[in-house]
Amino acid sequence: MIKVVLIGSGNVAQHLIKVLQDAEKVSLVQVFARNKTSLEHLLPVSKITSSYNDIIEADVYIISVSDNAIAEVSNNIPFTNRLVVHTSGSSELSVLDAKNRKGVFYPLQTFSKDKEVEFSSIPICLEAENDEDFKTLENLSQNISKKVFAISSKQRKSLHVAAVFVCNFVNHMYTIGNQICEDNKVPFEVLQPLIIETANKITTLKPEAAQTGPALRNDTKTINKHLEFLQETNYQELYKLLTQSIQNVKKL
Amino acid sequence: MIKVVLIGSGNVAQHLIKVLQDAEKVSLVQVFARNKTSLEHLLPVSKITSSYNDIIEADVYIISVSDNAIAEVSNNIPFTNRLVVHTSGSSELSVLDAKNRKGVFYPLQTFSKDKEVEFSSIPICLEAENDEDFKTLENLSQNISKKVFAISSKQRKSLHVAAVFVCNFVNHMYTIGNQICEDNKVPFEVLQPLIIETANKITTLKPEAAQTGPALRNDTKTINKHLEFLQETNYQELYKLLTQSIQNVKKL
Fold this sequence. Notes:
8-stranded mixed beta sheet, N-(1-d-carboxylethyl)-l-norvaline Dehydrogenase, domain 2, alpha/beta, Rossmann fold, homodimer
């Protein structure tokens, strides 16, 4: 049994509380939250503390708070030489206070408050300072997910930038598509199967091989028609730069 | 029974041949292809012709050829006053020759040669010059797909621009994500569940409401870290413009 204490009460923390309670061979022995009542719907109040001094013994302490608060929280912990990890994609291992053994337990997914997630298919990216701690994190993770990866701080930094492109920027493309549809009284629904198929394609094809469209074909006639169409929107420059960028990849 | 003649032998044409042969209440009576042998794996050679003068009578003639060839093909057809439609998202109704009754039958999906598609969930966008022809196209489409929409030439033009954003440009974001991963020896697999979830999200949430990330939060510290990371790539300017564009939407 791997004993876990979770520190935090936000969106990711709440998803973790649920999955850790359900996991086999894992015991969520305690949760630390400044405001106890925010978690009462998830676990018995006896398991929640709001005092650092009451934190009990465990194999892993998972800090799941906002990036800016990780350093302070890890500094406030009263004990030393235990395994303390954070869950942030954009923070280095070194933001954790050196009095404990540091690690990272980063579930790479976009978590929405009201949407259940299937944790077993979420990649968990792990990092630790020594082999034994890494094994502990690996054991823990394998009880939650089928996809566990060793990812260094340097790799995680690149992964976080890549995630901005494939998640945040992609969603912005959806926003623009939706706006064009609304402006022209076309139901956005018409585009949804295309969106899903475009995402599914890259699970079997390399994205470069899956590229289609006027930019790739250098279909200047269509590109110019589209630029003219976009004249009165904010998106003409974006269309130009993205078209150029696709053509740069093609040339490589 | 709706009798259909299909003209064309390319990628979309071949997908249509398969689905039209399988559809109930639809009879694919003939296919026109300049090179008969290119379709022999799909249907009996007796049903294929390469001579315009041998084209037989049908309720609908579907021209599924490259955009540039639609006008010429519709002009070469020897008969008049029948229902002739094209399958192009970017061509207006008016590119079809006026000697026949014009229409559009546009299945909105990204078709790959080697990947089977589930036609029943593909939106089919229809346009016709008169009600009776529209009904014929609607009948035909409902035998193939559950999603049939009336979309005018003007609406289809906007839809095609929107599709470039949500399909072609999105795929380019995947290409960039993949390249960052490869450059940093991170398996791209780590990002795939995020990609799928990002696409699935917008079937239940408006894309604007689903937006997350440093641009939306105006998290300047992370944005600057990412821009520094991207310095040696071609993608710094794109990151800047996309970040700006997300923040412009937020302000509206």
